[in-house]
Amino acid sequence: MSGSYITEEMAGRALNKMYGFNQKLSNLYSSEGLDIKADIGRRNILMSSIQEKEFSKELSKIYSGVINDGRSGQPDIIIGEIDTELECKLTSPHSNKTWALQCDYATLQKKGSLDFLYMLVDRDFENAAVLYFKGLTIEDFHPPASGSRGKSRMNKSKAMKKCTSLFGDVIDKNQEIIDRAKLIVADAKKPPYQKKKALERIINWGRKEKHYSFKLERIIGD
Fold first, then answer.
1. How far from chain centre, in Å, is Cα 206?
2. Could you give the C-alpha distances from 68 to 60, 110, 176, 222, in angstroms and in order?
3. Minimal CA–CA distance to 48: which of 38, 40, 59?
4. Alpha-carbon span 153 to 91, nearest angstrom
5. What is the SS3 assignment for 120?
6. Model pLDDT, residue 45
7. Where are the beta strands (DSSP E) in 83-220?
8. Which listed residue, of 59, 96, 194, 203, carries a Cα 20 to 30 Å from 50's Cα?
């Protein structure tokens, strides 16, 4: 999907600034005998403010009326010139390597539609993906589960249609499996039974709900 008002260059510059800030935080923690990576959730909360600040700075270079209030209950970023609110999210993978792309269901329900900027980072804050979503609604999320405190999981099979990858990449798992199966079908050396199974995979994965994974990119080049 194209048409994002945030560019790949903006994302790259903001990530570089965030990387430096994370290094400073890590050194500060270490000086007090603490490990910032001992609680990645807390680390990400600390990094969320600099995420909003740096993307606000980047947007301010292009648009007027960019506001990053930072107070609870206020939009993360307001872009006055184009009358847009942008929600910023920072997340790391669970222990099972899955990604929870969440929102506050009640807020989204009230607003009706919001743009989201999801930043996916690894434990060391060395690799990331930045995903921009245009106009997400509650239809793009599962209803909040009991005990989730109003947090709702993204329904990726719907929401990813509205996604622009600005850093890193999005992998369509269905298409990846289909493409591998097509290679088997086209290989003259493969026996008929393998080709038959490959054809079945092509049909089955073409019908299944979309599954996605994310490829992180190194923030600072070697």
1. 24
2. 10, 20, 39, 32
3. 40
4. 13
5. strand
6. 93
7. 84-91, 102-104, 114-121, 127-136, 151-153, 163-167, 169-172, 212-215, 217-218
8. 96
78, containing H or E segment: strand 77-79
> Taken in order 189, 192, 194, 199, is the CA torsion positive or negative?
positive
CA atoms within 13 A on the CB side of 159: 28
The phi and psi torsions of 41 (rounded to 5 degrees) equal -60, -45
Report pLDDT for 3.
59
DSSP 3-state of 29? helix
Question: Which residue is associated with the tokens 């622009």?
Answer: 164
- Digits of tens for pLDDT over the chain (222 positions)? 445 899 999 999 999 999 999 999 999 999 999 999 999 999 999 999 999 999 999 999 999 999 998 777 788 999 999 999 999 999 998 776 788 899 999 999 999 999 999 999 999 999 999 999 999 999 999 998 887 788 999 999 999 999 999 999 999 999 999 999 999 999 999 999 999 999 999 999 999 999 999 999 999 854
Residue 206 makes CB contacts below 8 A (sequence gap 6+) with 174, 178
Give the number of other CB atoms < 10 A from CB of residue 10. Answer: 21
3-state SS class at 156: helix
Residue 156 in tokens:
């990726």
Residues 6+ apart with CB under 8 A from 51: 14, 18, 88, 90, 119
